[in-house]
Amino acid sequence: MKIRIFVTLKNGVLDPQGKAIHHALESLDFKGVNDVRAGKLIELDVDDGTSDSDIEKMCEKLLANTVIENFEIERPTDQAAREA
């Protein structure tokens, strides 16, 4: 089963990578971009029996720094609903 983990910085945390992307877009003359926040996408291929609790523990212990980052878990049912 494929699981997607989206990791983003919490509001109020400075995002130097996002600022650099924003500046680069402006220098390439793209208009209308007000702000950029950069994040990470982590894809896991896990056994079908892997519990939601275990996936959350993976995020909390390794995949996201929960002091400054949020994470969102997307399961196959979520993925299918978004594609429909």
TrEMBL record:
Its main location: cytoplasm. Its EC number is 6.3.5.3. It comes from the Bacteria. Pathway: Purine metabolism; IMP biosynthesis via de novo pathway; 5-amino-1-(5-phospho-D-ribosyl)imidazole from N(2)-formyl-N(1)-(5-phospho-D-ribosyl)glycinamide: step 1/2. InterPro entries: PurS, PurS-like_sf. Keywords: ATP-binding, Cytoplasm, Ligase, Nucleotide-binding, Purine biosynthesis. It is found in: Cytoplasm. It catalyses: N(2)-formyl-N(1)-(5-phospho-beta-D-ribosyl)glycinamide + L-glutamine + ATP + H2O = 2-formamido-N(1)-(5-O-phospho-beta-D-ribosyl)acetamidine + L-glutamate + ADP + phosphate + H(+). It is an enzyme of class 6 (ligase). Belongs to the PurS family. Part of the FGAM synthase complex composed of 1 PurL, 1 PurQ and 2 PurS subunits. Part of the phosphoribosylformylglycinamidine synthase complex involved in the purines biosynthetic pathway. Catalyzes the ATP-dependent conversion of formylglycinamide ribonucleotide (FGAR) and glutamine to yield formylglycinamidine ribonucleotide (FGAM) and glutamate. The FGAM synthase complex is composed of three subunits. PurQ produces an ammonia molecule by converting glutamine to glutamate. PurL transfers the ammonia molecule to FGAR to form FGAM in an ATP-dependent manner. This is Phosphoribosylformylglycinamidine synthase subunit PurS. It comes from Parasphingorhabdus litoris.
